[in-house]
Structures are given as C-alpha cells and as structure tokens.
C-alpha cells in the first residue's frame, strides 16, 4: 500500500529552478570559501616550510660554530707546546737531537696547517690591535707603529684570532 507521498521542495517544477539556483549559489560560495581556505593553508604551509629551512640552517651554523670554537680552544692550548718545541730547536746544539726536534716541529706545523692555523706576520708590519699585543715601544727611525720585534708568535685559525702576537713597536724619537 502506497503511503502519501512526501512533498519535497525540489520536486515541484518551479521549486526545482529556485533550489537549483540556490544550490548553485551555495556550491559556488562553498567553493569560494574552500578556495580561500586552501590558499590560507597553502600560505601557512609555505611559511612553515621556510621557517623550518631557516631553523635547519641556524642549527647547522650553530653546530659549525661549536665545533670551530672547541677546535680553537684545543689548538690554542696546543700552541704553548709548539712554542716550547720552537725554543728547543733554538737551544739545542747537538745536530742529531736538533734534527729530531726539527722533525717534530715540521709535524706540528703540518698539523696546524691542516686545521687552518696560520702565523701572524709581524716583523716590519704595521701594528694592528686586532692581531697584536704591544708589550713595549722603542724610539726608532721607522714609522710610528711599525713592529720592531716579536716576543711571542700570534696565530689565527680560519680568520679567527687564537692568540695575538706579543710585540715591541716603534715610536717617534724624542725631539
């Protein structure tokens, strides 16, 4: 037995057109809303991806710096041993012993060079407070601020100062 048919607004001929237009309008509004939301989510995704990439670079740079400073600290402590070997070369008179110490000195120099350590050139150079430590000065005919003597060698590693060179600098002679 068939029951009374339910009347649906979409079933009448005139109602179909109205609802159809309303549905198309609703669908378009819904589509536009979803398109905006997609654009916002896409922007958010791109920003998060860029933030993550920046974070990754920052962490890598911090890691490099930590390694560099640890290496610099260790090599800085090692420089006093290198200085002792240099003094031993100057003090030893026996040729065989001197030959052995020179071999050690060359090996130390090669090790330092592999790690980017360079001596700071001083004699005859202009005093640079970023690289040199003036221990004293002396009247000289040379230009004021010219390095006359080096008391302790200075070193840099990958453009970073490990130890300043300790020097004597020229000053104008009294008149």
Structure description:
This protein has 175 residues and is an alpha+beta fold. The chain folds into two domains: 15-115, Hemagglutinin Ectodomain, Chain B; 118-175, Head domain of nucleotide exchange factor GrpE (Nucleotide Exchange Factor Grpe, Chain A, domain 2). It is built from two helices and six strands; from the N terminus they run H-H-E-E-E-E-E-E. The strands form two sheets. The chain has a three-stranded antiparallel sheet. Strands 2-6-3 form a three-stranded mixed sheet, with no helix packed on it.
What's this entry about, in short?
With 175 residues, this protein is an alpha+beta fold. The chain is built from 2 helices and 6 strands, in the order H-H-E-E-E-E-E-E. The strands form 2 sheets. Strands 1-4-5 form a 3-stranded antiparallel β-sheet. A 3-stranded mixed β-sheet has the order 2-6-3, with no helix packed on it.
Task: Please render the helix and strand layout as text.
Blueprint: H1 13-91, H2 95-114, E1 117-119, E2 132-139, E3 147-152, E4 155-157, E5 160-163, E6 165-171
Parallel strand pairs: 2-6
Antiparallel strand pairs: 1-4, 3-6, 4-5
Name the beta content range.
Answer: 15-25%
Predict the CATH topology of the largest domain: Hemagglutinin Ectodomain, Chain B
The helix fraction, in percent, is 55-70%
Rg from alpha-carbon coordinates: 39 Å
Total helical segments: 2
Shape: elongated
When the domains are counted, the total is 2
What's the main sheet like? 3 strands, antiparallel
Q: What is the CATH level 1 assignment of the largest domain?
A: Alpha Beta
Major β-sheet strand ordering: 1-4-5
Indicate the low-confidence ranges by residue numbers. Answer: 1-11
Report the CATH architecture of the largest domain.
Alpha-Beta Complex
């Amino acid at each position: 037995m068939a029951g009374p048919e339910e009347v649906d607004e979409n079933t009448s001929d005139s109602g179909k057109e109205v609802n159809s237009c309303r549905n198309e309008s609703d669908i378009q509004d819904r589509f536009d809303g979803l398109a905006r939301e997609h654009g916002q989510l896409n922007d958010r995704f791109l920003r998060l991806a860029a933030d993550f990439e920046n974070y990754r670079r920052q962490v890598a740079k911090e890691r490099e710096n930590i390694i560099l400073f640890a290496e610099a600290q260790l090599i800085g402590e090692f420089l006093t041993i290198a200085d002792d070997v240099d003094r031993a070369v100057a003090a030893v008179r026996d040729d065989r012993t001197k030959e052995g110490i020179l071999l050690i000195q060359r090996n130390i120099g090669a090790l330092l060079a592999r790690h980017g350590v360079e001596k700071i050139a001083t004699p005859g150079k202009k005093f640079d407070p970023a690289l040199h430590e003036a221990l004293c000065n002396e009247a000289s005919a040379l230009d004021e601020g010219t390095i006359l003597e080096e008391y302790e060698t200075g070193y840099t590693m990958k453009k970073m100062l490990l130890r300043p060179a300790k020097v004597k600098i020229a000053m104008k002679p009294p008149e």
